[in-house]
Amino acid sequence: MVTCAVSTCKNTSAKISKNKDGITFHRFPRDEDRRRKWEVAVNREGDWSATSSSAVCSEHFDAKDFYLTESGLRRLSLCAVPSINISPCQPSEPTICKLDPIQISSTDTPEVIELKHKVRRLEVIAENRRRRLNLMWQSKRRLRKKVDRMKTLIKHLIQHKREKGIDR
Ligand SMILES: [Zn+2]
């Protein structure tokens, strides 16, 4: 049985299945540097270190960490590091398993079922992008305010310089 290395996460391979919940388990990278990054990211107490069977579930990766192969399989990109719902202090983000389970009827052919899963994967990606877009809009608004403040400041400075120039 595979358990998720994130201590606050209760996902195990016994409880969830890829097809039903869309959750996959990803082993720690073999590469030393990347492995270390994952170990730091999962934020375990003491001198915990990953073993060859340690894994992190897909709930802790951003949608952008995954890519779809031509055949519609979801793969984790090489540079991905777990970052989502790691610590209890982090605001929890909607994840794959919060979406309704895929409805499969007895008349569905394997192709239809595979397409339904594909649609679900794309829905997850779309949802993550929507969230990122919202964050970008927020930061755009913040930056615009900052620009406005800077413009006012510059105007004041120019005014000040002019007044000084007249004094001289
Ligand atoms: Zn997990």
TrEMBL record:
Record-annotated THAP-type domain positions: 1-85
InterPro entries (alphabetical): THAP1/10, THAP_Znf, THAP_Znf_sf
Keyword Lipoprotein: no
Subcellular location: Nucleus, Nucleoplasm
UniProt xrefs under SMART domains: DM3, THAP
Keyword list, A-Z: Cell cycle, Coiled coil, DNA-binding, Metal-binding, Nucleus, Transcription, Transcription regulation, Zinc, Zinc-finger
Pfam families: THAP
Keyword DNA-binding among UniProt keywords: yes
PANTHER family, per the entry: THAP DOMAIN-CONTAINING (PTHR46600), THAP DOMAIN-CONTAINING PROTEIN 1 (PTHR46600:SF1)
Family, per entry: Belongs to the THAP1 family.
Stated name of the protein: THAP-type domain-containing protein
